[in-house]
Write a sequence for this structure.
């Protein structure tokens, strides 16, 4: 049962344009959402997060939008740069043991930014 | 910032032997660490939650006798793959929660190849 889904396995964007990566989830108990960037054979690198009490969070070129009613979040990267080319994972946290949250990852989207 | 060191970065072992992977939080204390596994072109699958001073909590379908987790101190968790077989070949990643900023920091991962 895939609780966090990224339906687009890949996305190709021209340099300077906007990249929009989408993520859907099924568990309404998720209270915190994160986006990670990952290169092959490396650990994920944190990009940006959003709490379930917000609907938007912005950090430089990265903006995450959360639509709780639709159980959907998206990551916008603008302007896109060739160095942004990587696999992007969304992740959601579930309250666990009352004090610790574990992360559930989506399936990933490979972003290719063309020069 | 919070740093998690994972060692080794890659290992090749013979079928039937055991392999230990270390995960250290270098500049913060981590009462909880997580172990993930990633197959090629797939998502990061949570294997278990490692709690300092207590038994690890394993996700459904993960064999606790095969994947031994020890979290003996606030800065070190180890994953031992016992009696490894070729199907255990995968990319293993640990992460720790940095309570100061509610951030999840990931190690750089370990590529295990069982021959």
């Amino acid at each position: 049962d895939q609780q966090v889904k990224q339906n687009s396995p890949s996305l190709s964007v021209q340099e300077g344009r906007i990249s929009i990566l989408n993520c859907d989830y099924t568990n309404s108990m998720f209270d915190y959402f994160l986006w990670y960037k990952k290169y092959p054979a490396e650990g994920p690198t944190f990009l940006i997060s959003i709490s379930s009490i917000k609907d938007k969070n912005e950090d430089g070129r990265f903006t995450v939008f959360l639509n709780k009613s639709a159980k959907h979040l998206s990551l916008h990267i603008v302007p896109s740069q060739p160095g942004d080319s990587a696999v992007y994972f969304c992740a959601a946290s579930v309250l666990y043991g009352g004090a610790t949250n574990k992360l559930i990852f989506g399936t990933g989207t490979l972003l290719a930014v063309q020069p | 910032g919070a740093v998690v060191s994972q060692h080794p970065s890659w290992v090749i072992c013979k079928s039937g032997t055991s392999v230990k992977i270390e995960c250290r939080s270098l500049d913060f204390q981590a009462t909880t660490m997580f172990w993930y596994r990633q197959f090629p072109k797939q998502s990061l699958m949570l294997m278990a939650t490692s709690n300092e001073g207590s038994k690890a909590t394993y996700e459904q379908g993960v064999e606790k006798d095969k994947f031994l987790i020890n979290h003996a101190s606030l800065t070190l968790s180890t994953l031992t793959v016992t009696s490894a077989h070729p199907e255990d070949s995968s990319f293993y990643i640990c992460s720790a929660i940095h309570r100061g900023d509610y951030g999840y920091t990931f190690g750089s991962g370990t590529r295990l190849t069982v021959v």
About this structure: Chain A touches chain B at residues 32, 34, 36, 41-46, 89, 91, 96-97, 100-108 (CB under 8 Å). The radius of gyration of chain A is 14 Å. Chain A has a mean pLDDT of 91.
